[in-house]
Amino acid sequence: MSTIDNLPPLRDVISTHGLAAKKSLGQNFLLDLNLTSKIARLAGDLTQADVLEIGPGPGGLTRGLLAEGARRVLAIEKDPRCMPALAEIEAAYPGQLRTINGDALDVDPLEHLSAPIKIAANLPYNVGTELLVRWLTPPEWPPFWQSLTLMFQREVAMRIVAQPGSKAYGRLALLAQWRTDPRIVLELPPEAFSPPPKVNSAVVHLTALPAPRFPADAAMLNKVVAGAFNQRRKMLRSALKSLTPEIEDHLHAVGIKPTERAEQVGLEEFCALARQLKDAGC
């Protein structure tokens, strides 16, 4: 018997429905329902929120979210083999779970959920970063979601919270830290999953800020950051020369040494440079 509801243990569910994890789908199932409940609790109070879950697989985190009182859960699963197992959870929580067999990149969750909305997911490794970048770069801010509670490879998690001067520091850190407060809230070893991945995993909780941490035009900031880190070994005067021939003057104007490299420059400085270039019509 499982510890959080009257449904079968996840190993039994996987056996019954023949749900061997597929590497092509980036699947690594978390089978300990105590852990999935802990991750659900890390998402905060769910009793007054709708929750979007991507890649539920056999439904371990889904059950944790529902057991923790989520008002409604929308679970988007690409693998059709998982749908019968998810249907059993749907039957056990009538009116609280909606499952969609499809690609999360193609589904508009706002057609199925009402604010406030939180996102919680053990993201498939092969689309996790792409989904995160989408959620961090909507056309308007604040976004449709209040918070993200997401499982990543630990290496990706470290890139999200990285600080200037570290090897992990780059575009992902700047995107995340400009508009959210990101924290690593849980680390998990490979043996927590089936099959065990070759790397450690970590859960990152990102709380959406009401406004970006520093003012800047999103498109210009993205252009500056992309240019700087695409050639991170080069000095900024060379890496950003394609933006304007007068890049050295603009760097001096905001107090950045043209000889510095991208990993030495903080978020506030990048935002100041983006404002400077935008005002100059670059």
How many discrete structural domains?
2
Mean pLDDT, to the nearest integer, reads 94
The portion of residues assigned to helices is: 25-40%
CATH architecture of the largest domain: 3-Layer(aba) Sandwich
Strand content: 15-25%
What class do helices, strands and sheet pairing give?
Answer: alpha/beta
Placed side by side, the strands forming the largest sheet appear as 4-3-2-5-6-9-7
Helix and strand pattern: HEHEHEHEEHEHHEEEHHHH
- Which spans of ≥5 residues are poorly predicted at pLDDT below 50? none
Short structural summary:
With 282 residues, the protein is α/β, with parallel strands linked by helices.
Description of the structure:
Helices cover 35% and strands 18% of the residues. It is α/β, with parallel strands linked by helices. The chain folds into two domains: 10-208, Rossmann fold (3-Layer(aba) Sandwich), CATH 3.40.50; 218-279, Helicase, Ruva Protein, domain 3, CATH 1.10.8. The strands form two sheets. A seven-stranded mixed β-sheet has the order 4-3-2-5-6-9-7, sandwiched between helices. The longest helix has 13 residues, at 218-230. The mean pLDDT is 94.
Key features?
two-stranded antiparallel ribbon; 18% strand; seven-stranded mixed β-sheet; alpha/beta; Helicase, Ruva Protein, domain 3; 11 helices; Rossmann fold; 282 residues
